[in-house]
């Protein structure tokens, strides 16, 4: 069977743990692996947008460390959500010159949840900023995003490891999962409870994803990091980098 792409990369959701995705991608590039197609959701959609636009993982790390999440998150009256994530769209539109998903340098699929239909959708065309914003809008915490006739929220609600749109097209499928469920997690506030509810979908399908993945990367200890805290950016980056190197070393992979 001839595959369309040699390497496909899947990036899960997980808030500011997304810094680990950048470490994963940095390690892959060092190993000589450049993804030919990317599928991302929530934090993975944010990271994926920058990488698909051709921006290096280290440059993306520096952009994120400026404090975009909290600096550009707007509190508003809780009619449909406690916060607005408009700042994510603003940063993407400021830092990425490309405005449409289909014009990115690397083919990119963004998982979003259709709030009206109750289904997952995988967008590879349309406005980049608005679609990424929708993919990262955790229900209740963040306001839904309108795309056409429908309202959309965090894609992780329906599919937090979006292998579906690319799994059949790739010779090698690399999965980076930054949201393993920690049964001992201290759920102290509404944000943590809401995000935990969304990412519970990970457990349901993680075993199946492991079977599909050529390389499955789940940084050990990442569940200890709060998904809305950016002060551990460098630690998470290194965690993703080191774990990726370990995965490839253990499998004794020779990259051609």
Which characteristics define this entry?
single chain; 256 residues; alpha/beta; two-stranded antiparallel ribbon; 36% helix; globular
Q: What is the gist of this entry?
A:
This protein is an alpha/beta fold. The protein contains nine helices and ten strands.
Task: Give the SSE layout.
Elements: E1 5-11, H1 18-30, E2 37-41, H2 43-52, H3 57-64, H4 68-71, E3 74-75, E4 83-84, H5 86-95, E5 108-114, E6 119-123, H6 128-135, E7 145-147, E8 150-154, E9 170-176, H7 190-199, H8 201-212, E10 215-217, H9 233-250
Parallel strand pairs: 1-2, 1-9, 2-5, 9-10
Antiparallel strand pairs: 3-4, 5-6, 5-8, 7-8
Helix pairs in contact: 1-2, 1-3, 1-9, 2-6, 5-6
Describe the structure.
It is built from nine helices and ten strands. It has helices spanning 18-30, 43-52, 57-64, 68-71, 86-95, 128-135, 190-199, 201-212, 233-250, and strands at 5-11, 37-41, 74-75, 83-84, 108-114, 119-123, 145-147, 150-154, 170-176, 215-217. The strands form two sheets. Strands 1, 2, 5, 6, 7, 8, 9 and 10 form an eight-stranded mixed beta sheet that branches.
Q: What is the global morphology?
A: globular
**Tally of extended strands?**
10
Question: In percent terms, what proportion of residues is strand?
Answer: 15-25%
Q: What is the number of helical segments per DSSP (H or I, 4+ residues)?
A: 9
Overall pLDDT confidence: 86
> Which segments are poorly predicted (pLDDT under 50) over 5 or more consecutive residues?
69-77
Q: Secondary-structure element order, as H and E?
A: EHEHHHEEHEEHEEEHHEH
Distance between the termini: 19 Å
Give the helix proportion (percent range). 25-40%
Assembly classification: single chain
Structural class given helices, strands, pairing? Answer: alpha/beta
Sheet with most strands? 8 strands, mixed
Radius of gyration: 17 Å
């Amino acid at each position: 069977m001839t595959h369309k792409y040699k390497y496909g990369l899947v990036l899960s959701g997980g808030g500011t743990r997304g810094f680990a995705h950048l470490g994963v991608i940095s390690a892959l590039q060092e190993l000589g692996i450049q993804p030919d197609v990317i599928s991302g959701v929530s934090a993975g959609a944010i990271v994926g947008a920058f990488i698909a636009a051709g921006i290096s993982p280290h440059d993306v790390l520096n952009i994120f460390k400026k404090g975009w999440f909290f600096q550009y998150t707007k509190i508003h009256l809780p009619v449909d959500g406690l916060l607005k994530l408009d700042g994510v769209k603003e940063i993407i539109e400021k830092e990425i010159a490309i405005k449409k998903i289909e014009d990115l340098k690397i083919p990119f699929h963004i998982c979003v949840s259709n709030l009206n239909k109750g289904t997952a959708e995988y967008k590879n065309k349309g406005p980049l900023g608005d679609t990424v914003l929708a993919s990262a809008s955790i229900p209740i915490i963040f306001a839904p995003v309108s795309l056409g006739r429908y309202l959309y929220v965090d894609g992780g609600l329906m599919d937090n490891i979006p292998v579906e749109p690319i799994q059949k097209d790739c010779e090698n499928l690399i999965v980076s999962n930054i949201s393993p469920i920690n049964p001992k997690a201290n759920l102290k506030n509404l944000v943590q409870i809401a995000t935990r509810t969304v990412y519970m979908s990970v457990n349901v399908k993680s075993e199946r994803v492991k079977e599909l993945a050529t390389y499955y990367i789940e940084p050990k200890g990442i569940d200890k990091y709060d998904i809305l805290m950016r002060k551990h950016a460098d630690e998470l980056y290194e965690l993703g980098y080191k774990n990726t190197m370990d995965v490839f070393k253990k499998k004794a992979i020779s990259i051609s």
